[in-house]
Amino acid sequence: AFSLPALGTSGQQVALSAYAGKPLVVNFFASWCGPCKTETPRLAAFYRAEHGQVAIVGLDENDAQANALSFTHADKVTYPVGFDPQMTAASAYGVGGLPQTFFLDARHRIVGRIFGAVTQADLDKGIALATRSLSVPGRTHFRPGCFRLVR
Q: Which of the pair, 147 or 80, is modelled with greater confidence?
C-alpha cells in the first residue's frame, strides 16, 4: 500500500486504497529518466483514451518537485501522480531502476511487471491480465531502462 502527496496539489494524497476493488496500473518514473520520457506520453494518451475504464497512477521517484511538475505538464499527464522523493513506494515494490510498471488486479495483487519503457502491447496485455485477475507466469518483461539505482 502507498499514500503519497499528490504532485502539484497541496493537501491531496494519491493512495492505493482509493482504488479498492479496481484493477490498477502503477507506473514508477522520474523526470531525469530517458526511457520515462519515451513512455509517459504513451501512458498519458492511453489514459485519456481509456479514462473511466482503466485506472493509472504515476509515482514520481527520487526527483525534484519542480522538475516532476514540468515533466508531467509537458506530457499532458492527467492521471494522478504521487510525489515520492524519499522512494518509500519504490522500496516497498522492490523497484531498483526506472521506469517500471506494475499491473494490479482488483484485489491489488501484482499480475504483471514491466522493466523499462512500457509499450502499447504491454499496456493491452497488462490490462487484460489485471481485469481477468489471472496471474500468468512469465509476465515480467525486461527492456533497456534508466537503471540509475534508487536509494
A: 80
Tell me the three cell numbers of residue 121. 502491447
Q: Cβ of 110: how many Cβ atoms within 10 Å? A: 17
Q: What is the pTM of this model?
A: 0.88
For range 104-112, the mean pLDDT: 95
> Cα dist. 116→6, 12, 28, 94 in Å?
24, 29, 10, 14
Distance CA 129, CA 104 (A): 9
- Nearest-CA neighbor of 84 among 102, 67, 62? 62
- The predicted-structure confidence for 8-40, as pLDDT tens digits, reads as follows 998 999 999 999 999 999 999 999 999 999 999
The set of residues, in sequence order, having a beta carbon less than 8 Å from that of 94 and lying 6+ positions away, is none
Return the closest-CA partner of residue 146 out of 36, 70, 31, 64.
36
- Beta strand 140-142 pairing with 110-115: parallel
